[in-house]
Design a protein that fits this description.
Layout: E1 3-12, E2 15-25, E3 30-34, H1 41-49, E4 56-61, E5 64-65, E6 76-79, H2 91-100, H3 110-123, H4 139-152, E7 157-161, H5 169-186, E8 189-194, H6 197-203, E9 206-211, E10 214-219, H7 221-226, H8 231-236, E11 241-248, E12 251-254, E13 257-260, E14 269-275, E15 280-283, E16 292-300, E17 305-312, E18 318-324, H9 325-331, E19 338-343, E20 347-350
Parallel strand pairs: 3-8, 3-9, 6-7, 7-8
Antiparallel strand pairs: 1-2, 1-4, 4-5, 9-10, 11-12, 11-14, 12-13, 14-20, 15-19, 16-17, 16-19, 17-18
Helix pairs in contact: 2-3, 2-4, 3-4
Length: 352
């Protein structure tokens, strides 16, 4: 089932949660709504589910207007961050709950419900745990029970609100890989909310980056990471340096380094060049190239990558470079020494 929201706005008193949001999600896609707290992502998810109403706009499910359709008729499964399992019910009864509360005319037979539950427990790798209670399960197991319960009603759309947010980092990483594999098996249209950039980039087919009630950018994980469309997306997606620059005669000048200016940027504009730490190359000499002269402030050399904290000698700005350990050992730089940096794949925007 496809999902489309058209011109969706939502205000809570004087606070604007969503401002004229438009988005289409195709059938079978796994899409992440990514953004900081207060960006509007959970409100948008709840409006799609029918748990929240919008002030303006429409929600279309399978190209049919579902704006006024009650939540129980939208064929949507919802997974919450904190599981929302019934403590007095065992795993089997929790998963079967959505089927057992149906009206008698639409409720499957008990044997069919039981078969469906056991099939789902196998799918989510919880076979043999059907008699346990939530308090007897790990956090990761409880979240998989919540997911099985959402799938039991055979939804056309699966919505997940920070599904792994309450779990520790190791379990979260395992479960997001498992969710990706599960989606590839089921091909159910899925939307999940997260503020974790790594999670969104690893799991989703497309990422919707939200900020201040609006969508900043939509694209595949590679498009979003390699070609961020705004300064916010640059800064939000992973570690990035922001270096002061100036535009003159169609060129962007970052100290002695000059880059081709974006067509829309005018001369005599103050700008910011965004460069990820792994796109900064260091050398002990200028080697006849335009470079930034820097002083090494600190070196973190644990693990396969060394992170060097640097300070520009021309204006005192501090930034970071990441280099493979073997390269760091070859450079043999020490704190307080001078080095020379070149930039690769810089993204330039006017200073806001």
């Amino acid at each position: 089932m496809s999902i489309e929201v058209q011109n969706i706005s939502r205000r809570f008193g004087t606070y604007t949660a969503l401002d004229q949001v438009n988005l289409r999600i195709e059938k079978g896609e796994l899409v992440s709504l990514l953004g900081p707290s207060g960006s509007g992502k959970t409100t948008l998810l709840r409006i799609i589910a029918g748990l929240e109403t919008s002030d303006t706009g429409r929600v279309l499910l399978h190209d049919q207007d579902a704006t006024e359709v009650p939540v129980r008729k939208r064929q949507v499964g919802f997974v919450f961050q904190h599981y929302a399992l019934f403590r007095h019910m065992n795993v089997l009864d929790n998963v079967a709950f959505g089927l057992n509360v149906r009206s008698r005319s639409t409720r499957p037979a008990k044997a069919e419900i039981r078969d469906r539950v056991f099939s789902l427990l196998k799918l989510v790798q919880l076979e043999g745990l059907e008699k346990r209670y939530p308090t007897q399960l790990s956090g990761g197991q409880r979240q998989r029970v919540a997911l099985a319960r959402a799938l039991a009603i055979e939804p056309k759309v699966l919505l997940l609100d920070e599904p792994f947010g309450a779990l520790d980092a190791k379990v979260r990483k395992e479960l997001r890989r498992w969710l990706r594999q599960l989606h590839e098996e089921l091909h159910i249209t899925s939307v999940f909310v997260t503020h974790d950039q790594e999670e969104a980039l690893e799991v989703a087919d497309r990422v919707v980056v939200m900020n201040n009630a609006r969508i900043e950018q939509i694209g595949t994980p590679r498009e979003i990471y390699d070609h961020p469309a705004t300064p916010f997306v640059n800064e939000f997606l992973g570690n990035v340096n922001s270096l002061s620059a100036h535009v003159a005669q169609g060129r962007v000048h970052v100290g002695a380094i000059d880059l081709l200016a974006p067509l829309e940027m005018r001369d005599q504009t103050d700008a910011v060049a965004y460069v990820r730490p792994h796109n900064i190359q260091l050398a002990r000499s200028r080697n006849g190239k335009p470079v930034l002269e820097v002083t090494v402030r600190h070196i973190h050399a644990a693990g396969p990558t060394a992170r060097l904290e640097l300070r520009r000698t021309d204006n005192g700005e501090e930034f970071e470079a990441e280099v493979p350990r073997i390269e760091e050992q070859h450079l043999a730089l020490k704190v307080g020494e001078t080095a020379f940096a070149t930039l690769r794949d810089a993204r330039v925007f006017p200073r806001g």
